[in-house]
Write a structure and sequence with these properties.
With 747 residues, this protein is mainly beta. Among the domains are: 10-211 and 222-297, Neuraminidase (6 Propeller); 308-337 and 552-573 and 592-628, Immunoglobulins (Immunoglobulin-like), CATH 2.60.40; 641-738, Immunoglobulins (Immunoglobulin-like), CATH 2.60.40.10. The strands form 13 sheets. Strands 32, 42, 43, 45, 46 and 47 form a six-stranded antiparallel β-sheet that branches. Strands 1-5-4-3-2 form a five-stranded mixed β-sheet, with no helix packed on it. Strands 27, 33, 37, 38 and 39 form a five-stranded antiparallel β-sheet that branches. 3% of the residues lie in helices and 36% in strands. The model is unreliable at 344-436, 443-550, 578-588 and 743-747 (pLDDT under 50). Residues 523-538 have a biased composition (Polar residues). This is HCFC2 factor. Keywords: Kelch repeat, Nucleus, Phosphoprotein, Repeat.
């Protein structure tokens, strides 16, 4: 929600302090030291359990080979694994707090933590190599390279009477100090800056720097100023890359202003910068306290999970996918098995636009103001602006893809993740996206909504109330779920797995969230979505055939949240379609110039989704397939309940909300273990455990002992329930009955 709130904390609430050490370990926060008042420093350690907002003062054991850390401020306090590493800081040599005699420190301590809550004690590691010089207001981060499992702590800058810009490395496994050689332009000497690790880069922002242009002031009384300069160190190559120089002008206020003593935190691949103060040494009493919050997108977002089906009708889909943290929206695309012709008479255009708020303000920094080196783009916004839904006229490039030919037998879609990334675009203000990070002030945004789906937990009685599934079509001898072919028993085979009668498709998603899936009757399945309300009329099929090579992915729209109802998609002009057949990811015209195509009944659609942040569009998800319904089939059963007994469970459900005729029977299926699952874990095999007119059945312990426990997200046993009328079986409701690790391990 991007809203601040003041929690009601309790317990051993610590006194207010400045320049303390602070680490976050899961849901607990540890705070050490700091200045309680002028000249009086602390060496107390406090723990906050953020899940309960409970403070507790903890008392670590003293080290066996020395004294515990003395009271200090401006130290670094870094977490790696179950240990915190304390280095340096500033102490007061005088016992009288009014008589401040500063002493810079370079001592090094290790604090072992207990799991969840509490600490063990301090220790003083025996280190090799030359210790870094004493300092305070420096930064320390810990980085472990993926292909080399030795974690290293990096200390940069600080203050020891003069400001520093030296870099030190500590190998935590061998406890060896060294000074790595670096390439590139080293940032100016500084203190009270921030350093954060995202990926293999250490991002350094702000701080106090010497006021002289050369940055060579070493006298204790030298003048200094705050800076808004921004750089990163590639920790694999030890090369410095400058992003924003100290002398760079920002007349449009598109970048965070100069500041020191601010705080910064990395959330995923996004860096948040909050507050700080701005000013000069000569104007100490006239410093400005910043109250703005900014964020920097450092790279394109990861691919979302596969699109998942919530409900299907004859001409629409209700879809969802798992959220991707810290993104601005999602691009949804579809690919139709049926030929979709290009639209004649619409001029092709290569003009493009970029994401912006509906308030009309550009979110991006002009590229001319950035250095010419290769780095992620900076993107900026202001806290006073509101970050509204992404408008439908935002454009991204379409990429071509060959059509997958349909087969008579139901088959699983490809599991390969799409690695394509969308091209960058320019908006009406003239900005053009690049691969650079994107920096924005954080604004309040509207709350997100999620689809009405659920998982059944392992409790005595539980229920799921999915949306009523609208009837969908299928051939008289087949029923479909959602993405992969699985076989279920025929009513005439008494439980044997057969090839002919009923073919079901299952979700094939790495992150199958708590949800109820609906089985789609058909030989294939696919999903789609649009921002517009879907039409109630059945669209006419276009008469003109289209060659396979001309079929492309079509934009459904750009969505703020991770769910959508799809009834239409945008058609490409013929000129653009021809361009796309030659060039992967070519630009597309403004959505406002494109015509829309309604979804057809009984048609297979493939779907993929990509997340969008300030750096652009990330890679697409794996492809999902769903089929629109054919009128006349029953909807999916709803309100599934599971009641657990000693030796069995009771499964019950409500009739379909849209029965479409008399219900002749219901079928319930259980995912079972099989050798086929060992070869292809994503392809579930189902056994029919019930067929009859009742809306309930008993699942025996013997049947449950043969159940497959699905680990695509949390461990769960999977059931499917579908209804049959005169025309055949309609879509099925899929329910994941959550199991605890102890229960699932025993099955």
């Amino acid at each position: 929600t991007n809203q601040w709130f003041l929690p009601a904390v309790r317990g051993d609430i610590p006194p207010g302090c400045a320049a303390h050490g602070f680490v976050c370990d899961g849901t607990r926060i540890l705070v050490f030291g700091g200045m309680v008042e002028y000249g009086r420093y602390s060496n107390d350690l406090y723990e906050l359990q953020a899940s309960r907002w409970l403070w507790k003062k903890v008392k670590p054991q003293a080290p066996s080979n020395g004294s515990p850390p003395c009271p200090r401020l401006g130290h670094s306090f870094s977490l790696y694994g179950n240990k915190c590493y304390l280095f340096g800081g500033l102490a007061n040599e005088s016992e009288d707090s009014n008589n401040n005699v500063p002493r810079y420190l370079n001592d090094f301590y290790e604090l072992e933590l207990q799991h969840g809550s509490g600490v063990v004690g301090w220790s003083i590691p025996v280190t090799k190599g030359i210790l870094p010089s004493p300092r305070e207001s420096h930064t320390a981060i810990v980085y472990c390279r993926k292909d080399v499992g030795s974690p290293k702590m990096y200390i940069f800058g600080g203050m020891c009477g003069c400001r520093l810009n030296d870099l030190w490395e500590l190998d935590i496994e061998t406890m060896t100090w060294s000074r790595p050689e670096t390439k590139g332009t080293v940032p100016l000497p500084r203190s009270l800056h921030t350093a954060n690790v995202i990926g293999n880069k250490m991002y350094v922002f702000g701080g106090w720097v010497p006021q002289s242009a050369g940055g060579e002031i070493s006298a204790p009384d030298g003048e200094w100023k705050c800076t808004g300069s921004f750089s990163y160190l590639n920790l694999d190559t030890t090369e410095w890359i400058g992003l924003i120089s100290d002398c760079q002008e920002d007349k449009s206020n598109l970048l965070p202003g100069p500041r020191a003593g601010h705080c910064a935190v990395a959330v995923g691949t996004r860096l948040y910068i909050w507050s700080g103060r701005d000013g000069y040494r000569k104007a100490w009493n006239n410093q400005v306290c910043c109250k703005d919050l900014w964020y920097l997108d450092t790279e394109r977002p990861l691919a979302p999970s596969q699109v998942q089906l919530i409900r299907a009708t004859t001409n629409s889909f209700q879809l969802k996918w798992d959220e991707v943290p810290t993104v601005e929206g999602y691009l949804l695309q579809l690919h139709a098995d049926s030929p979709v012709p290009p639209v004649a008479g619409i001029p092709g255009t290569h003009e493009t636009s970029v994401l912006s708020s509906q308030g009309g303000c550009s979110l991006h920094q002009s590229p001319q103001s950035l250095p010419s080196v290769s780095y992620p783009e900076m993107k900026v916004d202001h806290p006073s602006q509101t970050n509204n839904l992404i408008p439908n006229n935002v454009q991204v490039a379409l990429s071509s893809s060959s059509k997958v030919e349909g087969k008579e037998k139901v088959t699983a879609p490809e599991n390969k993740a799409t690695q394509e990334t969308m091209k960058n675009h320019a908006d009406a203000t003239g900005f053009k996206e690049s691969n650079a990070p994107s920096l924005l002030p954080v604004c309040t945004s509207s709350a997100q909504t999620s689809a009405n789906v659920g998982e059944l937990h392992d409790l005595d009685k539980q229920s799921v109330n999915p949306d009523a599934s609208v009837s969908c079509t299928v051939s008289s001898s087949q029923t479909m779920v959602t993405q992969q072919a699985v076989k279920t028993e025929s009513s005439s085979t008494n439980g044997a797995v057969v090839k002919d009668e009923t073919s079901l498709t299952t979700f094939n998603s790495k992150s199958e969230a708590a949800e109820t899936a609906y089985v789609m009757p058909s030989s294939r399945v696919s999903t789609g979505q649009t921002n517009d309300s879907h039409s109630s009329r059945a669209p006419q099929r276009p008469p003109a055939p289209v060659k396979t090579r001309d079929r492309r992915w079509y934009d459904v729209g750009i969505f703020k949240n991770n769910s959508a109802v799809v009834s239409q998609f945008y058609l490409l002009p013929e000129e653009t379609l021809n361009i796309n057949s030659k060039t992967e990811g070519a630009d597309v015209p403004d959505y406002r110039l494109l015509k829309k195509q309604d979804l057809f009944p009984g048609t297979v659609y493939r779907f993929r989704v990509a997340a969008i942040n300030g750096c652009g569009v990330g890679p697409f998800s794996k492809i999902s397939e769903f089929k629109t319904c054919i009128p006349g089939f029953p909807g999916a059963p709803s309100t599934v309940k599971i009641t657990k007994s000693v030796d069995c469970i009771h499964l019950s459900w409500e009739p379909p909300a849209s029965p479409s005729g008399n219900i002749l029977e219901y079928s319930a299926y259980l995912a079972i273990r099989s050798t086929q699952l060992q070869e292809n874990p994503s392809q579930l095999v189902f056994m029919r455990i019930y067929c009859g007119l009742k809306t309930s059945c008993i699942v025996t312990a013997a049947q449950l002992s043969n159940a497959h426990v699905d680990y695509t997200s949390r461990p769960a046993i999977v059931f499917r329930i579908s209804a049959k009328n005169e025309r055949g079986y309609g879509p099925a409701t899929q329910v994941r009955w959550l199991q605890d690790m102890k229960t699932s391990g025993s099955k």
